[in-house]
Amino acid sequence: MKRRALARTFSALPALLLLGPVLSRPAWAAPTSAEATSGIRAALERGAASAVESLGRPDGFLGNPQVRIPLPPVLEQAAGVLRLMGQQGRVDELVTAMNRAAEAAVPEAKTLLVEAVRSMSVQDALDIVRGGDTAVTEFFAGRTRQPLTQRFLPIVTRATEKVALARSYNELAGRAGTLGLVRAEDANLERHVTAKAVDGLFFMIGEEERRIRRDPVGTGSAILQKVFGRF
To answer: What is the rounded distance in angstroms from the CA atom of residue 231 to the CA atom of residue 224?
Structure first.
């Protein structure tokens, strides 16, 4: 009887090895590959929805020091001179416009993020289970960074082009960029804001993932508890 039980335990070992972190739990509590995939999809949809909701509202970026979008480094140096000349208001106007632009663009991410989650394979899910705290961010970045950039850029451009200082910066930085005096990513304000907006979105998704991994029971989701829980 004991030999049969031991044989069954060893026959299940390959499946358990695929589940990485769950090996620390009893074998009978380990989720199947299908359950792991379902759990990861639930975690990603939850993280994406939370990130979009928190950032895609007034002060989602501007009021959050973790993702607040700063001026490009070159413009920040010039802003110091403007402040000394009593032009603090112009600087503040631009920083506000940049962050408002990001807040307006983020809701466009929801459809792309959901599509990425639903296209996830079993192997993708297992890679995320085995991965560290950045596994979800890396998954989304690989699948959505380029299309998110394309969707965000026109929205950011419409919001920032109304600010005179933004137009002046683009003219000067554009010329400086052709001479190699300004990094390409800093030579256009809209592209700077768009890149920071996408980074901020991935950062917030990563924060939600870390919360789920630390406290799966707190999510109230049975499948997330089974995949990420510790017993």
So the answer is: 13
Q: What is the residue-averaged pLDDT of the chain?
A: 76
Among 63-77, 79-93, 134-148, 193-207, name the one with the lowest average pLDDT. Answer: 79-93
Report the C-alpha gap between 226 and 46 in whole angstroms: 16
pTM higher than 0.70, yes or no? yes
Give the CA radius of gyration of the chain: 23
H or E element at residue 1? none
Q: How many CB atoms lie within 10 A of CB 175?
A: 12
State how far the Cα of 221 lies from the Cα of 214, in Å rounded to an integer: 14
Q: Which two tokens mark 111?
A: 């459809």
Query: Residue 153: how many CB atoms within 10 A of its CB?
Result: 18
- The CA–CA distances, whole Å, from 138 to 82, 93, 144, 184 equal 39, 33, 10, 24
pLDDT tens per residue, range 64-116: 999 999 988 777 776 565 565 566 677 788 889 999 999 999 999 999 999 99
Residue type, 22: V
DSSP for 122-147?
Answer: HHHHHHHHHS-TTHHHHHHHHHHHHH
